[in-house]
Amino acid sequence: MTTQRVRKAVLPVAGLGTRFLPATKTMPKEMLTVVDKPLIQYAVEEAFEAGIEEVIFVTGRGKVVLEDHFDHAFELEATLESRGKTDELARLRAAMPGAGQISSVRQQAPLGLGHAVWCARELIGNEPFAVMLPDDLVLTPPGQGVMKQLVDAHADVGGNVVAVMDVPRADTNKYGILDVGADDARPGGLAEVKGLVEKPAPEDAPSTLSIIGRYVLEPELFELLETQQKGAGNEIQLTDSMARRIGQSPFHGLRYEGTRYDCGSKLGFLQANVAYALARGADNDPDLGANLAAWLKQLPL
Ligand code: UTP
Q: Residues with Cβ < 8 Å from 158, sequence gap 6 or more?
């Protein structure tokens, strides 16, 4: 099957981050730091690793710092240079995307994730595109990010492909949940999507397979988002429009390989910091993981 390659990713970052107040009063949630990098940088690196060429931020008021993070910081760079801090300088420069690889559009009011994605329609045009929610962080072996796993699956099956994981039944009311047809339940396997429901009560959930913040979607979705009514939480939901595509073209959930941390919640964010420090350490501190592990072991738990 020949499918059009995924070249663009939408990163909706206009949410209010109310679960993280007061930290997110003046600072975007996506600037929260896991070890030594803001969430937004993990997402952008994961997109480029997947072969994506253009990243589009859907921003709101108070989010300009997210764009600044991917620009030169002249005074800082000049100072690092004059002090001979070449490693630090090299790391900053290596993280800079190429000219024109990052752009942004505004969502003037936080009307929901579906509305945020719709705001990027003119920059996407008529081609398949990725959606990545930076507060979902997925720890994978290097070079095997979830976005790459999704883009590879999309190249095989086309249509819409979303990253999914099993959640406890008691938690289905926090996620978009799939009704599944043919299902390969192995890690890396695909589940055919027969239905999709946003935040169902545990007793109503058709399965426990939930969508996390990584998607490859078809451009036809924009027409549906345009007329999408408000849904759960009185917001324009992405899943409601996605559900209207079922049966029109292939639609799969990918049981991605990796461990997901919900960095929009305090517990998930703290877990991510520990897990990333233990698994990856830090570029400029190779002993970080071992030192943290030793400290954790002697905590009076
Ligand atoms: P969340 O449900 O995590 O909402 O949004 P939030 O506002 O960021 O955080 P809380 O729940 O108030 O703590 C999921 C994703 O959708 C984006 C958010 O930025 C996040 O990446 N989003 C949500 C928008 O861009 N616009 C919206 O209107 C709503």
A: 1, 3, 249, 250
pLDDT in tens, 223-259: 999 987 888 888 888 999 999 999 999 999 999 999 9
**C-beta neighbour count of 210 within 10 angstroms:** 23
CA of 111 to the centre of ligand 1 (A): 9
- Boundaries of every domain in the chain: 8-283
From the CB of 281, is ligand 1 less than 6 Å away? no
Q: How far is the CA of 212 from the centre of ligand 1 (A)?
A: 13
Residue whose CA is at the smallest distance from ligand 1 atom 5: 15
Could you tell me the distance, in angstroms and rounded to a whole number, from the CA of residue 116 to the centre of ligand 1? 9
Beta strand residue intervals within the chain, DSSP E: 8-12, 33-34, 37-38, 54-59, 102-106, 129-132, 136-139, 160-166, 176-183, 190-198, 209-217, 251-255, 259-262
The amino acid at 162: V
Domain 8-283: CATH superfamily, name plus number: Spore Coat Polysaccharide Biosynthesis Protein SpsA; Chain A (3.90.550.10)
Looking at the CA of residue 235, tell me the nearest atom of ligand 1.
28
* 29 pocket-lining for ligand 1 (C-beta < 6 Å): yes
Regarding pTM above 0.85, the answer is yes
Average pLDDT over the chain reads 94
124 pLDDT exceeds 80? yes
- Please work out whether the CB of residue 40 comes within 6 Å of at least one atom of ligand 1: no
* pLDDT band of 1, cuts 50, 70, 90: low
Residue nearest to atom 9 of ligand 1 (CA): 17
Quick check: CB of 132 below 6 Å from ligand 1? no
pLDDT (tens digit per residue) in 188-216: 999 999 999 989 999 999 999 999 999 99
Quick: pLDDT tens for 85-105: 999 999 999 889 999 999 999
